[in-house]
Amino acid sequence: MATIILGIETSCDDTAAAVLVDGKLYANVVSQQLEHQTHGGVIPELASRAHVQRIIPVVDAALSKANIDKKDLTAIAYTQGPGLLGSLLVGNAFAKSLALALKIPLIAVHHMQAHLLVHFIDDEFPTPTFPFLGLTVSGGHTQLVRVNGAASFTVLGETKDDAAGEAFDKTGKMLGLPYPAGPIMDQYAKKGTPKFEFGKPKVEGLNFSFSGLKTSVLYFLREQQDKDPKFIEKNIYDLCASIQKAIVNILMEKVERAVVETGLTQLVLGGGVSANSGLREALKNTNSNVFLPPLPYTTDNAAMIAMAGHLKLKENQIDSFYSEPKARLPI
To answer: By CB neighbour count within 10 A (0-12 exposed, 13-18 middle, 19+ buried), where does 287 fall?
Structure first.
């Protein structure tokens, strides 16, 4: 009998549902909340209200696309955290209600673990084998982890302040780029030359720091604009290339060190910033066996939640209906 998993993702501002049948993706539906762009960032209350309005149509669309009746579902996997609590509550309540009604197992999934486990979807790209080194980079997280198994993760290093994605967005805002600035900066960087240098953080071990870089960029821009008010406008491409290179260099320094210290030869990338072309190119030039997620799986999606749920179910890791969403959740 087929194992059919419904995955639900509502950690931030994307409402998503996916259907996985015996590890193969049948449907992956994402509804983006574009209304946040006018605010320059995600408004938590607006996000949770939008999830309430969209969760049923999105789940219905995923089931319809997969040609699966809800009565045939084996289990429901949902994002437990980390994320915006109001958004997480919507997915948690819906998943619990449906699982209870169908009398099937409920599986709570860690969002950042799922970003790394998405590589196991039965598709046209290669999959890693346990154990491997994982780099998660997003707007809220930057971590190096040893992935021992589908539910066994050991943090080797993490950011002590800001995440890489936040560094992209906030420095992009300094340049006058609209939210989210990261993807735009990536496109502009391709047209520029990284000729400007910024302060480099000194952090022990495999940990990261990006707050100092943001401060360095801020002071540099102020100094240059005092000399020429149109400095940013004249140098926008080179500035984007320089900032992107600085962020990627911070990440790569720790990645290369982690490879040496752990002896792991497989490196798996996950998270929203994994779509960045500069980071992807830098990782390709390492001596590791690198696994880069296809671009549709770099942003928040339910396919990764369903995949993580599928792997946990195989190990009989079923969660209680008393499980609660958590805005902060250690990996």
So the answer is: exposed
Number of compact structural domains in the chain? 2
- The structure tokens listed for 236 are 């926008």
**Res 331 pLDDT > 70:** yes
Residue type for position 7: G
The answer to whether residue 213 sits within a structural domain is yes
Residue 321 lies in a domain: no
Residue 201 domain boundaries: 132-293
Whole-number Cα distances in Å, 5 to 79, 102, 126: 13, 13, 22
| Predicted confidence (pLDDT) per residue in 290-307, tens digit | 999 999 899 899 999 999
Q: How far apart are CA 302 and CA 297, in angstroms?
A: 9
What are 157's two structure tokens? 């290093």
Cα–Cα–Cα angle for 126, 129, 135, nearest 5°? 85
Q: How far is CA 130 from CA 125, 148, 241, 272, 278, in A?
A: 17, 6, 35, 23, 27
Q: Any idea what DSSP says for residue 309?
A: H
10 Å CB burial of residue 43 (0-12, 13-18, 19+) is: middle
Give the HSE-up count for residue 147: Cα atoms under 13 Å, Cβ half-sphere: 27
Tokens of 160: 């002590």
